Amino acid sequence: MKQPSFFAKILLFGEYGIIENAKGLTIPYNFYKGTLKFVDAEAHSDSNEKLMEFADYLSSEMPDSFDIERLEKDLAAGMYFDSDIPQGYGVGSSGALVAAIYDQYAHNPIATNGLSKGKISELKNILGKMESYFHGKSSGIDPLICYMNIPLLINSKDDIDTVGLPEEKAGKGAIFLINSGVPGKTEPMVQAFFEKMKNEGFRKTMHKEFTKYNDACIDAFVKGKTEPLFKNLKNLSTWAFVNFKPMIPTRLLNAWENGIQSNDYYLKLCGSGGGGFVLGFTKDFEKAQQSLPDFELEPFYRF
Question: Are 74 and 51 contacting, i.e. CB atoms less than 8 angstroms apart?
Fold first, then answer.
């Protein structure tokens, strides 16, 4: 059985903000991928068992949406998810799995070509309900980008559209990933965010300052305007250092602050935080490497 691959994703902007209807920008990350397989099934019994538990969830919560009988038959034959997407690193490991199951077992899966905003929203809601099994409550954005495999602009919870991005250039600038060295767990981080949202002062700064910097970054990035992008990136990174400190991996706290002070690079969360990858933006990648000698930087977009 030759199955399609589903790639990782990176949420460039909008972490936590999209929960509160701020804008978001997410892109495929084709460095990592996952595929449903039967080959070497015995060596992947753990994945197979977890898929069986997921199938039980779908059978209970969404029985009319999937061919549960065929899914269970394939799982009994040893099907597993062969993935090199690191779990707990903010790049869509569960999103790719959800996309793969939806693609193969949904009754009348929504095709990805030429989707209207309404269809994209419908698809997001279905995928979000599926992924809620893994995270308690999912926006559906991660499996949506993994399934569609094209950049998406999130204007609000119910207004998502495809978007063109500036072509990469062989310049000094780069967007990169830093590995914090430890996986993060989405659900406790999201719960911590909701606890913070009970505080009126935090709600106010989230809705006014975070949204302002976040949305300005998206606008500048999509239009290829470097100067306003980095001006707002510094504000966004500073805001996160003050207000999202529990979500910043401990090992990266000093590096985060040094970036703000030196202007050699700016760091931001990649997903929910707490561990996993952190995103970095720099106008001079070599300088950023020199400023971060203790970390391996993984560039994925050059300008």
Answer: no
SS3 137: coil
Encoded tokens for 238: 């500073």
Instruction: For residue 106, give every residue at least 6 positions away whose Cβ sits within 8 Å of its Cβ, in sequence order, or none.
Output: 65, 66, 67, 126
Instruction: Output the 3-class SS for 115-137.
Output: CCHHHHHHHHHHHHHHHHHHHCC
**pLDDT tens digit sequence for 110-133:** 999 889 999 999 999 999 999 999
pTM of the complete model: 0.90
Residues 167-190: tens digit of each pLDDT: 998 899 999 999 998 998 888 888
Q: Which residues of 193-223 are buried (b: 16+ CB within 10 A; e: fewer)?
A: beebeeeeeeeeebeebbbebbbbbbbbbbe
Helix axes 93-105, 117-135, angle to 10 degrees: 120
